[in-house]
Amino acid sequence: MKTIIYGLLLTMLGSHCESWAVSELPTLQELTINSAVLGEKRDLVIYLPAGYKSSQSSYPVLYVTDGDIQGPHTAGTIDYLAKFEQIPQMIVVGIVTPFKTRVRDLTVTPLDKKNPNQLENADRFLAFVEKEVIPFVKQQYRTLDYQILSGTSHGGQFAINTLVKRPDVFQGIIAISPSLYWNNQQLLGIAEKALKSDQLQGRLYVSIANEEPAMTESYQHFLDLLISYPSDELMVKSQIFSNETHNTTVLQGQYAGLKYLFSEWPIPEGVPKTLADLQLKFANRSTLIKTDIKIPEDKANGYAQWLQYLNRQDDALELLKWNRNNYPQSFGAHSALIRAYLNFNMAEEAESALQYALKSVDKLSLEQQSELQSLFM
Predict the structure, then answer these.
(1) pTM of this structure
(2) Each residue of 285-314: pLDDT tens digit?
(3) What is the Cα–Cα distance from 218 to 229, expressed in whole angstroms?
(4) Which of 105, 136, 312, 366 is least enclosed by beta carbons within 10 angstroms?
């Protein structure tokens, strides 16, 4: 019995273990944009997900400020979580914000500015991101219309400023230890006006660490505003990392923020799934990232084998027949269905499935034909 269960677990987890051991790593590319908005050249650090070059898939995109510092660990976190199906694979675009221009790029403009109609500071940098970086990434890479912006400290301030100024650009915002105290908490007043208008949308994750009162008080003020002006279109989660500092909190904040934005993505572990269960899960995934995602062949086959082990004949066969119909050229899909029929002592159905496989699968090798026929011996 232990051997059977162990084998079943390997079937369910095998794709994870195999990909963990031998799969490609994210690919790093360093690029420069000659920005007309900023009037200068700016650097980008791009991380393409494992398997990008060998696939035709399109991906959500996460844009992160301070990309040279925050890009590497963010790409690693996404790669790890995606391998275990906690979130989808993503393209990570690290927008490099050098120390000498960081305050200018990421913080809101002082209230006493002389030209109220001229974009400055964070608003000008937001225009650079929206009008130059995003179109460039969409032109160069296979992207979906699901975008996330993540930032820490002044980058967190920039992320919240982006949410309240341009709520339709990003579907998810991660703001870690945002410097909301800046300019006498100026951004809080801007945020309150935006929240009152009830124009905000998407998902927002905000977090704070064990920090100075100026940080924590302004952060709490922002949370109070979110509570005072709730919206059906804006989903919010906040979190305190009391054991972390301003400089160490980003690792946990990024991890927790990504898991929140994709909280419906994982398939619950330890419970067998029927075809209806999987169809609902993948329909929800499709809705979330705005693209059609079909149940993968190995996923359907794995859960079907689990159902077969539990002797849930109807559920197992329904899933295996769906798999064969949706992957008609897959030798594995045909083989799994034939094996299941034989397991359930359905010899006539197994023979019919064999003949169907022999006629319908293109380029079925003699070795594969022999393997299928040997199942009846």
Answers:
(1) 0.90
(2) 999 999 999 999 999 999 999 999 999 999
(3) 17
(4) 366
